[in-house]
Amino acid sequence: MEEQKGLTRAQPSGGPAAPLSMQRSAIAALALLSCGLAACAGQVSETDLPPTNIALPGQWSADNAPDESDISRYWQSLDDPLLTQFVDQAAKNNLDIAQAAARLAQARANLSSARAAYLAQLSPQFGAQRDVGDFASKTVQYSVSANASWELDLFGRIGNSVGAARADLAASGFSLSDVQRLVIGNVALATISARSTAQQLAIARDTLTNQDDNLQIARWRLQAGLVPSLDVEQARVQRSQTAASIPALESNLAATANAISTLIGEPPGHVLAMLQTAAPVPTPPAALGLAAPATVLRRRPDVRAAEYALLAASKRVGVAKSQLLPLVQLSGSVGTGSTSLTNLFNIITGNLFGGITQLFFDGGRTQAQIRGAKAAADGALAAWRQTILQALEDVETSGADLRASRARVALLADAQDAAENAAVLARSQYQAGLTDFQTLLTAENQLLSARNSLVAAEAQRASAFVRLTQALGGGWTETDNITDTAQGMPQ
């Protein structure tokens, strides 16, 4: 019968069941020992990260003023209200950020699961049994039992698992911040691109109006017999080429607006309507100081995430190695059975068992797991070093791009001023019959090219500013959940 089986299991092998008071005392002592060992295991010192073997420069290649600005919300310095609106919407509604937040919640749950291994597992059971058949007793047998087991973390298996889960949680937190940094940067870059396209579209339409006038003037002069038909045909070619550029620009603007819609988590359409009105390309601040390379690396969330990923991989090597060491477990059970609920707890029996298990042979499975864990740690180390090098490259490249684009804007602004003067002179001279149409055609083509080049250079300058502030670690804030997660981890 079921309760008889339970009672048999409750009795220690080779002797009668221990008195309940002795069992309770033993269990209390073991519980105190469990708490002490769990506390020690929870304070296992974190594995020191290996050296990067990367010689960090003391300063960047370009001379810059020390970094004293807060770049966590750098897009506000571009002074574009629409850009700020898009960034705020992306921070709330972007689905890449939502996925990263879900991974953070998953890592937090995994940490809670790992910590639960410090505690004993308790499985109570209540049962009622009645035999059936011609000669079966009609008496109902009731039983109540509970089984408990607890692992002593003498060799750090649980401690390393918890350490790996804590490092995973920290890595997930910094990965969430890195996704936020990248999404905000993409929104800013896309908005700058849309502003540039809208400006070029306005330039094309304005130029088309002037070229319509040129074509009309050429026709009048042809009718008056002052110019050959070649002038009219050249004017038609110029106007048609400009008109053909407008649909392409409209298509580019729509594609960029639709990309922004996806980034801010809404269907296409509304953003395009907001970007139809041409507005100046945002102008970045005149100066941007650069923090020291080591400071920038500590500010970059992708570097921090790679660092904690390496720490988690190192901890898992310890978990794999602990399988070769003895496993100490305590288990116990307590139970009772009776044919009456009122007498159910009159007789209680139980047992307590402590065992040590040592792996002897598994065909090399554990050694293979250790080698696999070490290989994963080596890969995480390489990824950490790669992330550091990529961060240094990002700052140097975007810094050089920003300096070059600033110089180009200044030169192209002068070129546009000269092209505007030349176009005005060429048109007035053509109308007066002092020059041929080819001169006017050349002057206006140069003006169109100069205006488009200046807008493109302004967009490149603003984009370079965004990429540089991204590279410096701007666009995110170290929130409390990341700080709490990383508490006690190596800095």
Sketch the topology as an H/E string, one letter per element.
HHHHEEHHHHHEEHHH
| Strand arrangement across the biggest beta sheet | 1-2-3-4
CATH class of the largest domain: Mainly Alpha
User: Sheet bearing the most strands, described?
Assistant: 4 strands, antiparallel
CATH superfamily of the largest domain: Outer membrane efflux proteins (OEP)
What does this structure look like?
- There is one protein chain.
- The chain has twelve helices and four strands; from the N terminus they run ααααββαααααββααα.
- By secondary structure, it is α+β, with helices and mostly antiparallel strands.
- It has two domains: 1-43 and 122-152 and 326-358, Outer membrane efflux proteins (OEP) (Single Sheet), CATH 2.20.200.10; 49-118 and 156-324 and 365-486, Outer membrane efflux proteins (OEP) (Up-down Bundle), CATH 1.20.1600.
- Strands 1-2-3-4 form a four-stranded antiparallel β-sheet, with helices on both faces.
- Helix 9 (301-322) runs antiparallel to helix 10.
- Mean pLDDT is 83; it is low at 1-47 and 483-491.
